[in-house]
Amino acid sequence: TYGDADVAINASGGNPGVSFKYQSLNSDVVTVINGKVHAVKPGSAQVRVTSPATDMHLEVSKEITITVEKAAGNAITVSDIAMTFGDADVAINASGGNPGVSFEYQALNPDIATVVDGKVHAVKAGTGRIRVISPATDTHKEVVTEFFVTVADAAFATSTVVRRELKSADYVVGKLVDITFKEDIDQDSVSISNDNAAILSVSSRVVRVKLLKAGTVVLYVRVNSINYHLLIYIGLR
């Protein structure tokens, strides 16, 4: 196997009184050093073993086949990730793996979490698995491992302008929800819009919204010329 210690050839027989000579016929795959085979890279090679001629015997040679297997891939180290729905994407930070190649990622539960540019993106609350792959190289086999992503339910509408947090239980399809602002917020200075009218309808200028169907929507609240983004996840309950 590539990376193993050199292996002695251990030839026997041959002409009396002379030492064996060795010649690698595929020196890009193996070489011979002091009667031992040294693996250069995975592959198949021929090594010629020669017993030189003597005063009484002709030269004798024989070829042997050497097969060098790829080395086992280097282990991948990665930790489980816990996040809350609505959090910024979280870097996976895998380490180890095979030299000279980049990690590849596969979300096994894309309804819970996906991977974008090496970061986990939460799709909804739940637990999912992410597969991390270190591809095979010329010298090492592919390595695969998996880790868990746990996405917690969130307080979906909260900001510096909201007086109390509204929990996910408040967000049920068909329900009217009042978002109450802090006492020092001038209601006349507030304007509200949203980015998906099919999911959420703002039914009054200030704080009342109606939830139309399950999904994710951003409620834009503008107070005194400052914009606040309130992420709302509407679940099926």
UniProtKB/TrEMBL annotation:
Gene3D superfamilies tied to this protein: 2.60.40.1080
Annotated ranges, domain BIG2: 18-53
Pfam families, per database record: Big_2 (PF02368)
The protein's name: BIG2 domain-containing protein
Naturally occurring in which organism (per UniProt): Vibrio harveyi
